[in-house]
Amino acid sequence: MTHRQPHRLFYSQTYSILYLTVTMRKYFSLLLIFAFLLSVGTVFAQDYLVGDEDILKVTVYDHPDLTTVARISGEGEIVLPLIGGVKVSGLTTSQVAQKLTELLADGYIVDPHVSVFVEEFKSRKTLIMGQVNRPGVYVLSGNTTFLELLSKAGGLTKDSGDKAIIKRKSVSPGNPEIIITLDLKKLLEEGDMSSDVLLMDNDNVYIGKGGVFYVTGEVRKPDAYKYEEGMTVIKAATMAGGFTDKAASGRIKIIRKIQGKEKIIEKADIDEPVLQGDIVVVPESFW
């Protein structure tokens, strides 16, 4: 017993050290993640362009009597003690703080430290229409991305297509509006967050209906199906539950309308592309 006790003590101490090391690493990792998220949030807040109807809270360090909560007027101004009306619309929150600092330092306060926070976001709005559950006008609270707007609008309907169109006014007068096309499949199904975009004031977002194609004949679930890019005959048949035992898979035909005229593709290969509106016909085998 006396010979084993030191070993037990050694293993106990070693386990405690390892446990403490792992715990501290986890704790440190969480701190890093929290610090990163905090810094990202701070950057976003500093980059926000304030506008008419936004409500700002202005704080001057060591001067609580100057703390002000003010709504930006239709002329883009807020009114503050000592300095009166100040034009702030179109500036970021950090730029507003810098401007107020310079004005207060000009004969009012020695070395002022000003912070500016957005209490309520009212100035920026966007319209989302089409295949979403709650279409309408939404306020852009801070830096709002397309995905955040889509969430506010209740997500996509079952009939939505794979593209979202954002129409944006050009910053240069006289220039045509900017059209941004988003691949919803890449963004939502593949999780490619690089496809997400920050929305701007007066953006118009439209999500149209998805195209369909039809599968009929000797398949297990003949019906209309939502079209996806890269659709082929074999993919269409798979979506329709696969071929029945009677199917003549070598004599499949595609009925397609081109400029109002019907075209028939006989003996379509299984890798033959299927387009929106196509009818894939799987005939019965004669044998």
State the domain count. 3
Q: Average the pLDDT over all residues and give the rounded result.
A: 83
Strand order of the largest sheet: 7-6-10-8-9
User: What gyration radius follows from the Cα positions, in whole Å?
Assistant: 31 Å
By CATH, the topology of the largest domain is Outer membrane lipoprotein wza fold like
Largest sheet: 5 strands, mixed
Class by SSE composition: alpha+beta
Q: What series of H and E elements makes up the topology?
A: HEEEEHEEEHEEHEEEHEEE
Identify low-pLDDT runs: 1-46
The CATH class name of the largest domain reads Alpha Beta
Number of strands: 15
Percentage beta strand: 25-35%
Helix content: 25-40%
Q: Using the 3D structure, state the CATH architecture of the largest domain.
A: Roll
Counting DSSP H or I runs of 4 or more residues, the number of helices is 5
- The termini sit apart by 85 Å
Name the CATH superfamily assignment of the largest domain: Outer membrane lipoprotein wza domain like
Large-scale geometry: rod-shaped
For this structure, the quaternary state is single chain
